[in-house]
Specification:
251 residues, alpha+beta, two-stranded antiparallel sheet, 5 helices
């Protein structure tokens, strides 16, 4: 009995020290399966001596990629319609069609609604932080207070389209980005941004004087359904939009 009393704990201890069979490794994360068309659109490209990297596939989907869609509007072809609340931008085409781009929307982009026009655009534009940005974070923005030349690390990306009302600059921009992961999201800063591959495509289709219509929250989804049908629900998380929208309603 004494031997058994001491042998049992020893056997348990030996069993605990014995090598255990390896645990099954967690399944590897799989990259999204993208169509050849999307892979080609968002591959690496050269522009003005700069090589724009390919968009990481994890930030892409066939739904997010630019594409031609049905779009019902009275706006003439060539008009840009921005829906900040759905994170979409439409370039109106003929016969109830439009080219649809996915965008990211910053607080500045949610603070403007109505009509404007694009008098000019810039390739690889210079970016200058606002005085409030410099005041809030002098360590970050102080070194570039006089402006940051265009390039792959510039927040405005490869192109910027400048929106004016009459002769007045609205300070509202449609531009590229250095942060592909932001596209399709509501962000804390910036106006309306697109993948660099998309802003280059859009800029090539835009001429001086192009009209721009920015929808309010109440108008979100306008054009995506035929006339007379109710607008689709706004597909966003209210926490993305904590401030007052251009209609004056608290989100």
């Amino acid at each position: 009995m004494t031997l058994a009393r001491f042998a049992l704990p020893a056997l348990i201890a030996m069993a605990a020290c014995a090598p255990q069979p390896p645990a099954e490794p967690p399944p590897a994360a799989t990259e999204p399966q993208l169509s050849p068309r999307v892979q080609a659109i968002y591959g690496a490209m050269e522009d003005d001596g700069r090589v724009i990297p390919a968009v990481n596939p994890k930030f892409l989907s066939d739904e997010k990629a630019r594409q031609e869609v049905d779009y019902w509007t009275d706006e003439p072809p060539g008009t840009i319609v921005v829906d900040p609340w759905a994170r979409r931008l439409y370039l109106v085409q003929k016969n109830d069609r439009a080219l649809r781009y996915t965008v990211a929307v910053g607080e500045d982009g949610r603070g403007f609604a109505g009509e404007a026009h694009i008098p000019y655009q810039r390739d690889w534009p210079k970016w200058t932080p606002t005085q409030s940005m410099i005041k809030e974070d002098p360590a970050l923005y102080g070194p570039v207070k006089d402006g940051l030349d265009g390039g792959l690390d510039n927040p405005l990306g490869a192109r910027a389209l400048y929106l004016h009302q009459g002769n007045k600059d609205t300070l509202y921009r449609i531009h590229g980005t250095m942060d592909d992961s932001s596209i399709g999201k509501a962000t804390s800063a910036g106006c309306i941004r697109l993948f660099n591959q998309d802003i280059i495509d859009l800029a090539e289709r835009v001429r001086s004087g192009t009209q721009v219509v920015v929808l309010t929250r109440a108008e979100s989804g306008k054009g995506t359904v035929p006339p007379g049908q109710p607008l689709p629900p706004i597909a966003y998380n209210p926490e993305d939009f904590p401030q007052t929208d251009p209609t004056g309603d608290q989100t």
